[in-house]
Amino acid sequence: MATDQTSTTDPDVYAEFEQRVTRIRNVDNAAGVLKWDQEVVMPDEGTPARAQQLSTLSSLSHELLTDEETGDLLEELESADLADEQAAVVREIRREYDRQTSVPRELVERISETTTNAHPTWKEAKAEDDFETFAPVLEELVSLKREYAEHVDPDADPYAVLFAEFEPYVDLETAEHVLERLRDELVSLIDAIGDADADLATDAFDGEFDPDAQEALCRDVLDTLGYDWDRGRLDTAPHPFSSGTQFDARVTTRFDETDLLGSLTSTVHEFGHANYTLGLPDEGYATPLGEARDLSVHESQSRLWENHVGRSRPFWERFLPAVADRFPATDDVTPAEAYEAANQVYDDNLIRVEADELTYHLHIVIRFEIERELIRGELEVAEVPEVWNDKYEAYLGVRPETDAEGCLQDIHWSHGSFGYFPTYSLGSVLAAQLYAAAEDDLGDLDDRTREGAFDDLNGWLRENVHAHGKRYTTPELIERATGERLTADPFLEYAESKYGELYDLEGY
Fold first, then answer.
1. What is the domain extent for residue 262?
2. Which residues are 244's β-sheet partners?
3. Quick check: is 6 in a domain?
């Protein structure tokens, strides 16, 4: 692997260490393919075997990472004069080693098997609108994750420990500050929009849209953005996601016959994730140098492409003809109307993945507050539906009538992913910060988007974000790319300018 300075370490020691890291990562990557298969194409009755398979791989990865030999290699390398990239790999593996050696293997296996079995239970509960079906599993997952956090750091806030699984270098206090600022400062903007007299073309894409034609259109949008089909594929899943490596980064979406924009925005969002994964250096595969810099940065890439590109007016000037080709009934929709429809702010939406760009963050705040209280033992699982509904009524002015459209709508808790949700808002904030920095370097990007010329933007992201993998910590990466620390200022300025113009608001 290429390095940027000469190392005085015995090369055999680092080579042995890197070989060990590669074995661990290949086990993890194999598990990732099995998880993709489970959510996309696995037969319904495949769960018992899949749970055992994933539990075995999880245990094997844990054993390789926490083996005494790994610790010995880390100690020897940490006292050596390493090249910068080598030191970064050692830093990242040391962090994982310290966390995982504090957790018993049996607990790792239990968590893996429980989350695998939780997935079909969640699907059933959501389909049947029956929270009581999922509640026992959720209780078990909360208990297991509390136990996990206790092993990692018995003196720390257990939710902070779990948040660090997804964002290890941005502390929980920073995340809380960002979320509180978004909640406080977006409310007045959302209220002003609710009181506005603007008549947006919210019905521009009303109608029924054949799912097969929607899939063809989603392939069109991936072509337009430059998705590498030789290293990816498009499939459907109940909850859209992207997974993989720089050699195989897959995208999923879902189709609703009455919601054309939903499948498009989901596809563009997941393209952003896959595009980041595909931009990681090939030579860094199966080491931290070839892995994404955690979830806030990952989410910044999906939100950048979804919102700053895919919801922009220049994008609709470019892409609307493709929509009309697939759906001739839309041939009288103008780019301005498409732009308005793609950016309407909903006053009655209950579903996070269908939320507009502004109220989305209140959906995140609700989940964040609930899961934080669950993990801290301040909320019982049985109370979740009522608390969820109360918060929706208080924050968004709507109240779910069913648990399926309420607390059962997200897949994350069935994965045991407590601490994940804040990264969505952190990613949106970072997306605006990165896009502003890209425009500072490249100039206004609207004309390039209008022409479907995304090479400059993608090249900037490759150079400033993707190519570094985990070489830098999150704060270091952000400062190198943008010249400043993580800040909500660019996002709030962007939101106020964009929606102030859309809704003809005074003072924005």
1. 172-502
2. 249
3. no
